[in-house]
Amino acid sequence: xxxxxxxxxxxxxxxxxxxxxxxxxxxxxxxxxxxxxxxxxxxxxxxxxxxxxxxxxxxxxxxxxxxxxxxxxxxxxxxxxxxxxxxxxxxxxxxxxxxxxxxxxxxxxxxxxxxxxxxxxxxxxxxxxxxxxxxxxxxxxxxxxxxxxxxxxxxxxxxxxxxxxxxxxxxxxxxxxxxxxxxxxxxxxxxxxxxxxxxxxxxxxxxxxxxxxxxxxxxxxxxxxxxxxxxxxxxxxxxxxxxxxxxxxxxxxx
Amino acid sequence: xxxxxxxxxxxxxxxxxxxxxxxxxxxxxxxxxxxxxxxxxxxxxxxxxxxxxxxxxxxxxxxxxxxxxxxxxxxxxxxxxxxxxxxxxxxxxxxxxxxxxxxxxxxxxxxxxxxxxxxxxxxxxxxxxxxxxxxxxxxxxxxxxxxxxxxxxxxxxxxxxxxxxxxxxxxxxxxxxxxxxxxxxxxxxxxxxxxxxxxxxxxxxxxxxxxxxxxxxxxxxxxxxxxxxxxxxxxxxxxxxxxxxxxxxxxxxxxxxxxxxxxxxxxxxxxxxxxxxxxxxxxxxxxxxxxxxxxxxxxxxxxxxxxxxxxxxxxxxxxxxxxxxxxxxxxxxxxxxxxxxxxxxxxxxxxxxxxxxxxxxxxxxxxxxxxxxxxxxxxxxxxxxxxxxxxxxxxxxxxxxxxxxxxxxxxxxxxxxxxxxxxxxxx
Lengths: 254, 427
Description:
The complex is a heterodimer of chains A (254) and B (427).
Chain A: E1 5-16, E2 19-30, E3 34-38, H1 45-51, E4 62-70, E5 73-74, H2 82-88, E6 89-92, H3 103-114, H4 120-133, H5 137-140, H6 153-165, E7 171-175, H7 183-196, E8 201-205, H8 209-215, E9 218-223, E10 226-232, H9 233-238, H10 243-249
Parallel strand pairs in A: 3-8, 3-9, 6-7, 7-8
Antiparallel strand pairs in A: 1-2, 1-4, 4-5, 9-10
Helix pairs in contact in A: 3-4, 3-6, 4-6, 6-7
Chain B: H1 11-49, E1 54-63, H2 78-83, H3 87-96, H4 104-111, H5 118-128, E2 136-142, H6 145-152, H7 168-179, E3 183-187, H8 190-193, H9 206-237, H10 242-256, H11 259-273, H12 281-305, H13 309-317, H14 322-350, H15 354-358, H16 379-388, H17 393-423
Antiparallel strand pairs in B: 1-2, 1-3
């Protein structure tokens, strides 16, 4: 059974000044699935991910061409409001980056600026549900006033996931979310992703091929700015169509 | 490996260790020299200046008579008493404390032992005690600056009489008073409340303290908001191009411009073009703000830059706008650094003298300013003015003014260090 296409990328070209980072990338990403992006460092997979919620806009020299449609709407259209887009496409970063504020404030910030809660009880409700969805509520429910930075690395990352889902997005982008975490924390995040995909479309960039194999339904392999191959994860790891992919997944380079 | 190879040192290693020892030794020497100089400076200033914090009083007896009766003061208000002419009454009463002296020239010398404002001091005493005055009262009035210096031991009595400001006759009277236990020290409160004066025993820091206070308020009000928002705009919002590079270079250059140049600017633009009132804390404040502004901008930009980009990304990723990201997350984290920079900038402005000389804050001003629009001096300028005065008594006042100035600077820097320690987030 194929899920419906959520994100449709066509002919995406990205330049950082003179240097071209992505070449004609075309890719469909299905709803309520986890899609993994793998490839050696500097291959453009993070750049690709950051195009999906226009985080590259902050970089002056970055130029994006082509189209990215989410639910049929091109997010690079002129009348698109970036703030609204990022409300729908959340992001979790490589290094946990909670705000140096209380745990509660970390999660409440998004709903507050978007006016998602009418009053304090509603805001608390949103914060609690988000923390529960991120599987961290039980660990922090007694100390919501403590600063987010006082948590352990794995907890911080789950707090960041709670922060991302607090504004009720459709898509969650994860940029190597476990690279700064130990195996136990990583396992927790992976289990969490398994839960989250029921509600959200998840796209994860990872350096760990085992992780891609464990969590994702589909995998895309990037090399030198080109999307070499995208297919079912099983196929990519067992019988890839491209030799480069085979070399990479078998550890011959990268 | 030979078991002894870790113990036997070879020539090369010896040389390296010696070099290390020499390097440490040079460092210790440099630090010690610096500390010694600071110590000499502080001992010098404090030993010269501490005596300005107390003053000499002499006890005298006042007898009321038929013309000036203690009862008559009861109905009078303070201002009425202050308007009375009690000069000759006071003078005669002082004379009668020394019944043996009859020559007129000697009587004049007696009066010179006391502060020139003896009449006012007697009136002040009457004012305070008008409801329970007896027929005779004993009160302390200030000694003249020369007797004050003698009593503090700042004047040597051994120099020949013709070169001394206090005659042998006056000294003998003074010794007599000391013998009768009528001379005492008291904390010099007027030194902190009065304005400048040509009479050394009356000159105080009050005017320049208030002047400096007003000036610093103006500096704070002008340079902090402009500096903060200027830095936020340049660091977070402006696009990097030739124009902003040009501005950045200019700000850095401005921070290194000699302060007297800002004085010339203040004189040329604020006083001559805009005709703002001369010698006022307002003009001084604006001039010093121009000097402080680059310091604050540079400090604020540095602390904005030290906020990790991941915080900005975190806020942007939940859909905060650029302004929200900066105002909600970046600025609060950069604020301690910015405030620290501001305090240090203000401390620098507080000690600044040269630009104030050019805009006329160097005038002799007796009245304590009551607003930033009144003519005033500032602490360092007051020290500079006193240092130029001939009387010996101003020497201790100069040092005392510097002690007060240094205390404020140290206090400001301590506050800055405290804020940095307490509120700065470590990453």
